[in-house]
Amino acid sequence: MNQKLVSLTFGALCVCGLSFSQVKTIKKDTTTAPDKTVSVQIDSISDGKNLAIKEIEPVVDSLSTITIEDLQLASEFDQKWLDELYSNELFDSIYASVTDLKYDAVDYPELPTDTLKARLHKLSAKTPFNIEYNESLESVIKSYLKHRRNSLERLMSLSDYYFPMFERELDNYNIPLEVKYLAIVESALKPRAKSRVGATGLWQFMFATGKQYDLNVSSYVDERSDPLKSTEAASKYLARLYEIFGDWDLALASYNCGPGNVSKAIRRSGGYENYWNIRPYLPRETAGYLPAFLATMYIFEYAEEHGFKKHRPDFRYIDTDTIHVKQTISLDQVSELLELPMEELQFLNPSYKLDIIPYVEGKNYTLRLPRHAVGKFVTNEASIYEFVNNEMNKREKPLPQLFNSETKSTYRVVSGDNLGKIARQFNVRVSQLKQWNGLRSNNLKIGQRLTVYRTQPTTSASKSVSNVSTKSNIPNSAPSASQTYKVRSGDSLWSISRKFPGVSIQNIKDWNDISGSNLKVGTTLKLSR
Questions:
Q1: Which of 141, 315, 380, 427 is most buried when burial is the number of CB atoms within 10 A of its CB?
Q2: What is the mean pLDDT of residues 299-325?
Q3: Which own/partner contact pairs does 473-476 have at CB distance under 8 Å and 24+ positions apart?
Q4: 483 vs 119: CA distance, rounded Å
Q5: Higher pLDDT residue, 489 or 362?
Q6: Which 3 state secondary structure label does DSSP give 69?
Q7: 15 pLDDT band (50/70/90 cuts)?
Q8: What is the pLDDT of residues 387-416, one digit of tens each?
């Protein structure tokens, strides 16, 4: 039996070996295109016929065949817009200091704890805010004194301009005058400050809240950036919040995070109504909001004791005045006509988003000027508007007629440059520089390249303001290589430049080594290099 079993087993193995030996294997050629069918010949056990097996082709991922790239020009525009939103160093540093306040002990021996306690007690007696000493507040005050001294001095200089207008509006609505320090915490006194959630202006109004308090936003104007109108709106809003909570600490907290979040914090604390008791239950930013406000108030009130030296401000609010515009006019036109730096006008008129003051029926849009320039504007008002009309008509021509590749040049920004300076250098307008380079703000970076079109002078611009000064005749042609002009009574750099097509105010200054704007009657000016 065993011998038969061995024989059968051996026979079966032989049959299997013969079957496998008949399989013809065809190796896949790695160079073969994937769309060819590869066949394998095998023996069928059932009928002995050969079968063809088709290889299953892999499905190619469609995304792997597409290259997705951003448009370079559009990407640059996006970056410029982001720079506009978040470029303000002082505003960002204050925003960060509020949201990331640290309450660790700070070594600052110049301010002993006992001295701080005594000063806070005096300060609390003068204001309705609850200014009680605690270690957290001491930490914030000493941290500001130690690490933020330079920025605080800059803010003190700016405050000389803004605080008088703040105090007037706050007083009109019976708001504590110390609330003026809130604008420092909110915006670092930057009228065009924008937070990462879209809050805008000195008092950081969101779009909807601004609309609720009559702060209109259009393509030309953002009244949230208007110092007077936004301060009035903030006063109304704070007065309403105080009516709700009956406590100025809670009113300020709700100004930052909304009344609903303050009410939730009161509930979560078990019913406490003192800010310091509900602070652990407030949003993180609001938890640091009142300490930052109180620390700022303390430092400003005791600035002299801490040796702060305020820099002389460029302007005082009382030294400016407003004019209601009678037609659309741009700030760079005002800058050229009144010989005022563009940056000065932008500082005084921050609510005009495109540096253009529109004329809209039923609206009272104003131009704020230094007092010394108001008289010049009013005296020459008719001629100024005539000039503006001619300028607008000239700008309506198709771009190819105004600019061509031969007039195009590139300028690289260097340290100390600003748009006004570059515009004067090339005898163009700030608005033109912004249009040619897709700029949404006035911020420039060192090394940045700007496209500039050198426009050809025309006689229409000079004729349009010929009535501003009628005491002398206007030459009919551009100055010759040796032409000069003798200054007469009533002349200014602006009026002289209007008389000679192709000669700018900066040209006259450069050719005659003039640094200021005052001219002496009888002086002979060169009108060419």
A1: 141
A2: 87
A3: 474/498, 474/499, 475/499, 475/500
A4: 69
A5: 362
A6: coil
A7: low
A8: 888 877 766 444 343 444 446 778 888 887
pLDDT in tens, 363-394: 889 999 998 899 889 988 888 998 888 877 76
DSSP track, 243-301: HHHS-HHHHHHHHHH-HHHHHHHHHHTTS--SHHHHGGGS-HHHHTHHHHHHHHHHHHH
In which residue are the tokens 């803010």 written?
155
Pick 90 or 373 by higher pLDDT.
373
The CA-atom distances, in angstroms, between 248 and each of 158, 370, 381 are 25, 36, 47
Q: Measured between alpha carbons, how far apart are the two ends of the chain, in Å? A: 128
- For 258-301, the pLDDT digits (tens) are 899 999 999 999 989 899 899 999 988 888 889 999 999 999 99
Quick check: helix, strand or coil at residue 223?
helix
Helix (H) / strand (E) element for 162: namely helix 149-172
Token readout for 256 is: 């930052």
The CA R_g of the chain, rounded to the nearest whole Å, is 37
Distances (CA, A) of 126 to 123, 175, 303: 5, 14, 17
CA 226 – CA 350 distance, rounded (Å) = 6
d(CA 381, CA 391): 15
* Cβ(466)–Cβ(492) below 8 Å: no
Q: Is 78 helix (H, G, I), strand (E, B) or coil?
A: helix
pTM of the predicted model, to two decimals? Answer: 0.60
Maximum Cα–Cα distance across the chain? 143
Q: Using the predicted structure, report yes or no on whether residue 87 has a pLDDT greater than 70.
A: no
Between CA 251 and CA 259 the distance in angstroms is 8
